[in-house]
Structures are given as structure tokens and as C-alpha cells.
Amino acid sequence: MVMPVRHRALELLLAPSQERRPRPVSWRLWLAMLLVCGHDLLQAQTIFQSLFQIAQPAKMLVGDKLQQFYLVTPANEVIKYSADGQLLYRYNNNTLGQLAHIDATDPFQLLLYYPDFQVVLLLDRTLNPLGQYRLGQHGLLQPEPLGMSNDNLLWVYDQATFRLQKLDRQGRVIAQSDDLNLLLGYPLQPTHLLARHNAVYLNNPATGILIFDNFGQYLRILPITGVERIQILDDTFIWCFRQGKWQRYLASGGTPADDPAYAPFIGHPQALFFRSRVYVLTKDGLAAWKR
Q1: 204: which strand partners?
Q2: Could you report the per-residue pLDDT of 227-242, keeping only the tens digit for each?
């Protein structure tokens, strides 16, 4: 259920309420918020306007370039919402174990990964099944991390061969990197993979974010270390969750590009940062803000 929020108070900074319906913020509460957040809160209140809240508990939040978003419930159900917060479609699969990863690189083809069975499912825009990869059957023993390619195929980092590989729909390797342990001179332990703007980004927390071309050839590294997850939702910035908060960098060279207006949101691990919107997931549900 979508609930409009008429005031601009940043309710996400407050302790969760037992009530689901938004309510005005008292002057005492505003005073407490000011003491804690000070200038950041006043600036964000001026710049961001609340759009809607969705009272749907979830464990994962993912967005696509159309500003649609997907929630994964504790029961592994995927729920798709429109950019204005309307529930569109649902999908659930209880036979493949825990759903660990979603890639929404293409809004018309969603990737779901179930590591217990090393199965990748592909869903269409209405969350109906399109196909699947059974990675173990293709000789991939440690296929993580992985993600959708820009042409709707599959990128996988194979930890057994130390190579980034691109698979076609039949599971055949059609492009791959060199042995990255030999090429770089150190072992990789990557945690996240994204394909954006004719490049593949492979996050290795110890050394930074490695960038490859569409053929899997290593190009360079953004020396941003200690990153847990990355998101790239436009062609300008890369957001990195590191040291307990989201930090923004220029995608072109990894230069810090912080904006204090985002300060109230960056401490939430499950958040999406679009050019003009922010989605934040808390234990009670999702809140959307417009700049």
C-alpha cells in the first residue's frame, strides 16, 4: 500500500513507529532531530521532498534505470514497483534456496541468482520466467560474483580460473579476461560485479574497482578500497558503500564527489541514489524522496 507523505520531515532518521500512517512531526521531535543532524537535516529538508512510503518489510532493494524498484521479502518473494510506487508484479520461487542477488541492468530482463543451487533465473518485465543458467553444468565451480551484461548475456568471475567470463544463453564462454592473478600479481576476492556503459566493474575490496571492456579485457582500476557494494544509476557517478555509509565518486576517475544534501540517507545500507531521487529501505518498508 502506498501512503503519501505531506510533510518533508526525514522520518527515516527516527525510531520506527508502530503506526504505518505518516503523521506530522511535533516541534519537540524537530528539536531533537536538529540537535542530532544539524545543518545536514535543514539542507536536506530544503532540497528533498517526500514522495511516498510503502509498508512492505524487505531484505533487499534494487532499482533500474527507469526508476522502477524491486523489493525482496524475507520469504524470497520479488515485488516490482513502478517509479510512482505502484505495485506491478510479484515472483516467488521456493525450490532454489535463498535469493542472494538481483541485477536490473535491463528493465525488461531481470537476473536472479540462487547460489545454493548455482542457478541464474531470467525474468521478463512482468516477472515471468524467460530462461535460466545452471552454472555447475557449465563447469563453473565458484561462479561469484556475477551480473547481467549490456547485451543481456551473463558476466561471471570464475574463482577457480581467476578469469572474468562472458557466457551466451547456452552457457558457452564467448569472451574472457586473462588470468587476473598473473596479470595483476595478486589474488582477487571480488564481491560485486556490474556492467554499465560499455564497461564491466568488478569490485575487489582490498585494491579497488577493476574496470574491463565489453570483451573482458582489463583496462584500469579505481583505487577505492574497502567497498562492499557499488551502484551506478547514471553516467556520471558511482556510489560505493564503504566504512558504513554510501560515498559518491566520479565514474570517470574515482574522484570523491560528495554532496551534503544526501547526508541523512547515506548511512542506510539499502538505498538507491538516482539523479533526482533517493529510495531508502528500513525494517518497516521503503520511503522515496524527490530532489
Answers
A1: 208
A2: 999 999 888 999 999 9
Query: In whole angstroms, what is the distance from residue 19 CA to residue 138 CA?
Result: 50
Q: Cα–Cα distance between 282 and 56 in angstroms, integer?
A: 10
Q: Using the predicted structure, report yes or no on whether residue 253 has a pLDDT greater than 50.
A: yes
CA distance 93 to 111: 13
| CB neighbourhood size of 90 (10 A) | 12
Rounded Cα distance between 178 and 219, Å, is: 12
Q: Report the distance separating Cα 114 and Cα 103, nearest Å.
A: 12
Cα separation of 260 and 32, whole Å? 20
Please state, in angstroms and as integers, the Cα–Cα distance from residue 86 to each residue in 52, 61, 69, 89, 259, following that order. Answer: 10, 15, 10, 10, 29
Give every strand in the sheet of 87-91, ordered side by side: 60-63, 69-72, 78-81, 87-91
- The predicted model scores a pTM of 0.84
Distance CA 291, CA 284 (A): 23
Task: Write the DSSP assignment of 191-258 as a string of letters.
Answer: -EEEEETTEEEEEETTTEEEEE-TTS-EEEEE---SEEEEE--SSSEEEEEETTEEEEEETTT--B--
Domain 2-290: give its CATH code.
Answer: 2.120.10.30
Q: Is 249 exposed, middle or buried (0-12, 13-18, 19+ CB in 10 A)?
A: buried
- The confidence band for 43, taking pLDDT boundaries of 50, 70 and 90, is low
Q: DSSP class of residue 15? A: P
239 Rama sector, left if φ>0, alpha if ψ -120 to 50, beta otherwise? beta
**Cβ count within 10 A of residue 19:** 8
Is the pLDDT at 181 greater than 90? The verdict is: yes
pLDDT of residue 6: 36
